[in-house]
Amino acid sequence: MSVAVSNLRRVWKSAQLSVGFHRDPAGKERDHPHVWSPKNGRASIHPDPEEQEAFVMMRSAENDSAQDIQIKLHPEMIVLRRDFKEAWQGLKIDAFVVTVKVGDTIIRIGPDESISRKSSDSTTWIEADGQVLKISEYVTASMSGDGVTLKRRTPDGVAAITENGVIWKER
């Protein structure tokens, strides 16, 4: 048995495909969706998730409902959500972008391999070429993709490290 296989543990104990009907047959919006599980394990994805939504409930092997995951299947994206505060709470996957919510932080992976991280106090981008840019209340900083040039702007001044040396200018 390999080391990877011997370290595995059971995370999920069951999966249930369901369809939630958000409107009654007369078209009136329900307070709570009517949930139905298809007998053959197949469900079509309705074009309007506000009307009808297919989803899979993954039950945690830990018997902790906060670790259960709901996988919502929409025509333009897949959404995973859970109430587990010690890890990610949401994941959205569309045709081009993957977005993850962890606490109050949103991480976005773009189709060009760029990554952004946005929290309540700052935003950081890593561009596809490796360039890094960080913006916060106190500083705007960047580093070139090859690591040769570093720049920093604060309320007090501007500083840069380039191939030609160090530059500092007070404001």
Q: What does the model show?
A:
The chain folds into two domains: 3-103, no CATH class; 122-171. The protein contains one helix and 15 strands. The protein has one helix at residues 3-6; strands spanning 12-23, 29-36, 52-60, 69-73, 77-81, 90-94, 98-102, 105-109, 115-118, 122-126, 132-136, 140-143, 150-153, 157-162, 165-170. Strand 3 and strand 4 form a beta hairpin. The longest helix has 4 residues, at 3-6. The radius of gyration is 23 Å and the shape is elongated. 2% of the residues are buried. The mean pLDDT is 92.
Compact description:
By secondary structure, this protein is mainly beta. Helices cover 2% and strands 51% of the residues.
Task: Walk me through the topology.
Layout: H1 3-6, E1 12-23, E2 29-36, E3 52-60, E4 69-73, E5 77-81, E6 90-94, E7 98-102, E8 105-109, E9 115-118, E10 122-126, E11 132-136, E12 140-143, E13 150-153, E14 157-162, E15 165-170
Antiparallel strand pairs: 1-2, 1-3, 3-4, 4-5, 5-6, 6-7, 7-8, 8-9, 9-10, 10-11, 11-12, 12-13, 13-14, 14-15
Low-confidence stretches: none
How many strands appear in the DSSP assignment?
15
Integer-rounded radius of gyration: 23 Å
Helix content: under 10%
Task: Assign an overall shape.
Answer: elongated
**Relative strand content:** over 45%
- Order of neighbouring strands in the sheet with most strands: 2-1-3-4-5-6-7-8-9-10-11-12-13-14-15
Q: H/E order of the elements?
A: HEEEEEEEEEEEEEEE
Number of domains: 2
What is the structural class?
mainly beta
Main β-sheet: number of strands, strand sense, barrel status? 15 strands, antiparallel
- Helices, by number, come to 1
Taking the alpha carbons of the first and last residues, their distance comes to: 63 Å
Mean pLDDT: 92
